[in-house]
């Protein structure tokens, strides 16, 4: 097997692209895919400031490194979830990575915000992954907005996006389907959100991280067992194995044909937004979802005789 680009012995085969690459050429392929995503989806320019959400995993760290190598003005944001054994390891990987590459990093500790995830798991009667995701999205947007950033970039890859699209389609969730895409424009207090890795699979991102020598936090979250998202990824992975290119075709055709239709459907719906009375974040109620979660947590812990 020879490299598609230079004809040297290839180390990485990509059936979905009908291509293979040697160790020197694969990073160039990766860079080209990110460049294409940014250009075609009009994500951001070199004159703008980008906040990159860093979990410590392969996708977010690979994205941060690649954007910095392409000359973008990037700052990392890591949210410390206060999960025993897991959060300290993830934070250490992020801090070491940013120090190694001379990259700016901000860290937000949810415990200092009155929202430690272990306490939420114990005292809030809702799926912890759902609440955790809401909290992270809240602070990603808030810190990006208050910090004067032009866009928030996340490391969602093609596998993530295809699995999410699959789940939303199974439910025909028109609200989520109308918003799903690599670029979500900023409006009404929300920062522009972008996903520059949407053209790259989980395998391709992992391969890039390995070739670049990125040390990642690979332990699964101890609270995420049984998530349906994992099952959807497995199903799509089996389809991709039998029919290479299916995942990208599914997602890309949705962007071209499906999303515009759902956006028209949702255009006339939706409640007006106003600043949260407590934190100023956009919400359709007096208080945003995260501030209400904090109040509920404080009340439930007080009733249980506990404190943060």
Description:
By secondary structure, the protein is an alpha/beta fold. It contains eleven helices and ten strands. A six-stranded mixed sheet has the order 5-4-3-6-8-7, sandwiched between helices. Helix 2 crosses helix 8, helix 6 packs across helix 9 and helix 6 packs across helix 10. The radius of gyration is 20 Å and the shape is globular. The chain starts with 11 loop residues before the first strand and ends in a 5-residue tail after the last helix. The relative contact order is 0.14.
Q: Gist?
A:
Helix content is 49%, strand content 12%. By secondary structure, the chain is of the alpha/beta class. The strands form three sheets. The chain has a six-stranded mixed beta sheet, with helices on both faces. It has a two-stranded antiparallel ribbon with strand order 1-2.
Topology:
Blueprint: E1 12-14, E2 19-21, H1 26-40, E3 49-53, H2 58-69, E4 73-80, H3 86-101, E5 104-109, H4 117-123, H5 128-146, E6 151-153, H6 158-171, H7 174-179, E7 183-184, E8 192-194, H8 202-211, H9 228-242, H10 246-266, E9 274-275, E10 282-283, H11 289-303
Parallel strand pairs: 3-4, 3-6, 4-5, 6-8
Antiparallel strand pairs: 1-2, 7-8, 9-10
Helix pairs in contact: 2-8, 6-9, 6-10
Features:
single chain; 308 residues; alpha/beta; Rossmann fold; six-stranded mixed β-sheet; two-stranded antiparallel sheet; 10 strands; globular
- At the fourth level of CATH, the homologous superfamily is HUPs
Order of helices and strands: EEHEHEHEHHEHHEEHHHEEH
Number of helices: 11
Number of domains: 1
What is the straight-line distance between the termini?
Answer: 58 Å
**Share of residues in strands:** 5-15%
Major sheet characteristics: 6 strands, mixed
- CA-atom Rg in angstroms: 20 Å
Arrangement of strands in the largest sheet: 5-4-3-6-8-7
